[in-house]
Amino acid sequence: MDRAGKFPRLLRSAYLAMHRASDAHFTRHGITADQFVLLACLGEQDAVTQQDLVQRAASDPSTIRAMLVLLEGRGLVIRGRHPDDGRARVVRLTSKGRRLFERLWRTSEPIRVRLLAGFSEQESNVLLGFLGRLTENANAMVSRRRASRHALATQEAT
User: Fold this and answer.
1) What distance in Å separates the CA atoms of residue 139 and residue 43, rounded to the nearest whole number?
2) Which residue has the higher pLDDT, 52 or 154?
3) Where are the beta strands (DSSP E) in the chain?
4) Mean pLDDT of 73-101
5) Rounded Cα gap, residues 95 and 56, in angstroms
6) Whole-angstrom Cα distance, residue 91 to residue 48?
7) 3-class SS at 87?
8) 26 pLDDT exceeds 80?
9) Residues forming beta bridges with residue 80, ordered by sequence position
10) Residue 36, SS3?
């Protein structure tokens, strides 16, 4: 199997290994790895629209909404109306949510260290840059596919 053939399997394997290790850690604190991603996205910025959170967390709206309902029920996030767009929802960490995020971020440091073990700082930075570019490329493919489907549906409607 050539390098391009191994790529999808290795990328999936790396993701699943990271997800399993993270989930095992966060579950001990009553949070899933996916919920932690939302806490981390919210920890980077004071307030985020729910739609922006969908993009940042690389998920879909219904999954994000379901996780936010759970986190809101636990008093970790609050959702409210956007001041300029009544249809949009703004999400924030509560003080309880921020404290939990900060504690989980600190306690999960060994996971991040282990994942990057054997990489120099420069290699780690290059890897992160490559992963960012890979994500942009994948998102561009999805956007082109959606645009093509939309154009086809428009043609069929006329």
Assistant:
1) 24
2) 52
3) 48-49, 77-81, 89-93
4) 90
5) 21
6) 5
7) coil
8) yes
9) 90
10) helix
